[in-house]
Amino acid sequence: MNKVRIGYVIDRLAPGGGTENQLIQLLRNIDRERFTPIVFNLRPESYGTVDLDCEKIFLNVESITSPSTVSAFFRMTKMFKSKNLDLLQLYFYDGRLLGTLAGRLAGIRPLVFCRREMGWWYTKSKLYVTRRTAALSHYCLVNANCIKDLVTRTENFPADKIEVIYNGVDLKLSPPDQRPSLAEFGIPEGSPVIGVVSNFRRVKRIDRFIEVAARIKNKETHFLIIGKGELRAELEQLAKDRGIDNRVHFHYTIDKTHDLISRFAIGILSSESEGLSNVLIEYAMAGIPAAAFNVGGNPEVIADGQTGIIVENDDIEGMAARIDELMENKTQHEKYSCTAKKRAEELFSVGAMVRKTEDFYLNILGRKRE
Predict the structure, then answer these.
(1) CA distances from 201 to 10, 27, 270, 272, 278 (A)
(2) Which of 154, 188, 191, 234 is exposed most, by the fewest CB atoms within 10 A?
(3) Residue range 292-322, pLDDT digits in tens
(4) CATH numeric code, 176-347
(5) Is 0.70 topped by the overall pTM?
């Protein structure tokens, strides 16, 4: 069988965001005997990249409104033709817009656009554009059933052309004796720790994590916030205003967080809008019960009352109360931990994600596995 040549168009491919990390996992594990991936980065290489065993092309588009966009569009169209692509997969707003138009002009079929979030960034104009690009596309890949429903409803895309493939997470933990000590963060050994891993962006609502923390009854509990972003000073001030700054600890990084997750008693996701959260899967893979609000794909990762806690959006009091109950019930906590880990390994492995994606490609191209 001739190899399937796939073009991936993304703003920039570098570790950090959930979408980028999932594409990196796919590219590192896809069967190179059957598939040849080529990555088209809209942004210059200086914006970040990753070491991958595949061709990477940088189109040097600073922003979708920059003058360089027009020339990049025609270069992209020409390269799509010269690379003899069998299909094109498009990510994010800029990648979808330029990639769809250039792909149609180059005669690439099928065009597959990806949606991995719940449209918190929608504006009237952007929604108009995504509807138009959806009408020019042939298939859609999403990572949660809730997003499939959203794309069908808001972008008027046929449900039977949307494939749901859950994220794949490969959690590699260091041996216990090589993991960071809680003392490094000023947390006494033996103290219960509730944590969150997230970028400090408005939509991630780390302020709600701090509000929950202020309501936890056990005053020996410490709270570890791992991430980075422009809201750092604001979040530090909120913890001080709530009188818990001596028990709220910040670790300003998004790199190598897995070993720290293993120190959590409970992991929280405080977002007000979410697709299928990688960090919830990472909590589960590490055997950590999770708590989250009922938004996006959170209920598809957390089985409420079995692997963790789901409360209605913005129910801060309810989340704090249920966390208190779980922290006090060690038998229930252990049951949640075991069930979460087992369920995550079954549903969210990298192997399952890659295999299903490969099958999707072969199916829409009318090919079969040898």
Answers:
(1) 21, 27, 11, 11, 16
(2) 188
(3) 999 999 999 999 999 999 999 999 999 999 9
(4) 3.40.50.2000
(5) yes
